[in-house]
Amino acid sequence: MRLLIAPDSFKGTLSSTEVCQMVEETLGRSFSILTHPLADGGEGTLEAIAGCLPQAQWISQTVMGPLPNQRVEANYLWLGKSQTAFIEMAQASGLTLLSKLERNPALTTTYGTGELIKDALNRGAKKLYLAIGGSATNDAGVGMLMALGWQFLDNLGNSIHLGGNQLIKIQQIIPPQASQAFSQGVEIFCDVINPLYGDNGAAQVFAKQKGADENLIKHLDQGLKHFSDRVQQQFGINVNVPGAGAAGGLGAGAKLGFDAKISRGIERIAELTQLEAHIQASDVIITGEGQFDQQSLQGKVICGVLALAQSYQKPVIVLTGNSDFKNYAGIQKIITLVGEDISLESALNDPKAALRKRCQELQAYLTNVRDI
Fold first, then answer.
1. How many C-beta neighbours within 10 Å does residue 2 have?
2. In what order do the strands lie in the sheet with 71-79?
């Protein structure tokens, strides 16, 4: 029996590569294993695709972090021959770069992501792939654009400050006079299809997990709508499109700045990493992520893996930190790290021990059902 291990990261605890390695350590004693780390546009995207781009070079830059007074070391992938950059905004503007007490989408900014993009342009980049999940921000990508020379002025003609709470002040937007461009375009990898503002928009759905209370969420949502209106009035561009609400509205900013194409991250990453061929060549598919819930079925890794596996009638097992489902159509078995013998606190404090124990249980299960 050949097993394909194709998980997302377990957010905040284990990377997809670490999950693959640990599963292989246990199951590799009894089964043929093929590992295939995955991501959907969030943190870990570059790590997941780097193995499929052996000619890629890691570029390291010190840039602004999610908070204006913060400096972080961020990396991106550079393909010199094709002059292509793969940038993961979570490297510079991600939620995991902040403690829970530091989270505040009124203040956080995508400026550091813009600095990474500027570096790629200075290297002569013609094509940009931008993964925009896992953000700490709600600034509609305005910080990113400011790093690239765009000006956002208030009613006195002064530049606004960085942060999501500044969007409501924008009265005029001035593009850079001599802007650099990606001649082969910009493609966004994201894991949601939310619009920029409104009940399903960036602030209403995601700002709470980034540190916002109800009053701030309302203010941020008003700012996103105001930004959208200003862009429409000045440039005739509709930035309130599906996916524009990803990463606190970064999708909208990329639409304004680059006319970016917004794509489902898991679908494009599956193509880049040849996931379909690996599914065809395997007997059982093991996927997973930190939390298996309704959101997992809306463009996340489990959703993408399940769809491909079903097209080839391959059984799927989900290995996850916790699950809202005891079973789900098309999934052979759901195994959670959290259970009667492992508390949520224990799983978070020592995820490797929890995963190792569940891998042993998975090995026993597979050994007993080899005709799965």
1. 12
2. 57-64, 71-79, 84-88, 127-131, 186-190, 261-264
Chain centroid to Cα 140, Å, comes to 16
Q: What is the pLDDT of residue 371?
A: 59
Interval 50-74: pLDDT, tens: 888 888 999 999 999 999 999 999 9
Token pair of 249 as six digits: 């509205």
Burial of 52: CB neighbours in 10 Å, binned 0-12, 13-18, 19+: middle
Record: fold of 2-37+274-368: Rossmann fold (3.40.50)
Q: CA 252, 254, 258, 264 torsion: positive or negative? A: negative
- Radius of gyration over every alpha carbon of the chain, rounded to an integer in angstroms: 21
> Cβ of 151: how many Cβ atoms within 10 Å?
14
Distant-in-sequence, close-in-space partners of 223: CB < 8 Å, separation ≥ 6:
140, 164, 165, 166, 167, 168, 203
What is the CATH number assigned to the segment(s) 45-265?
3.90.1510.10
10-residue averages of pLDDT along the chain (372 residues): 94 89 94 94 88 90 98 97 96 94 98 98 97 95 97 98 98 89 94 92 95 97 98 97 94 96 92 94 96 84 94 96 92 95 94 96 88 59
> Could you report the per-residue pLDDT of 15-56, keeping only the tens digit for each?
899 999 999 999 999 999 999 999 988 888 998 888 888 889
Residue positions counted in the chain: 372
Q: Buried b vs exposed e over 288-321: b needs ≥16 C-beta within 10 Å? A: bbbbbbebbeebbbbbbbbebbbeeebbbbbbbb
Q: Where in the chain is the domain with CATH 3.40.50.10350?
A: 2-37+274-368
The residues that bridge with 130 in the sheet, in sequence order, are 87, 188
- Closest CA relative to residue 272, chosen from 48, 84, 56: 48
Residue pair 136/108 in contact (Cβ under 8 Å)? The answer is yes
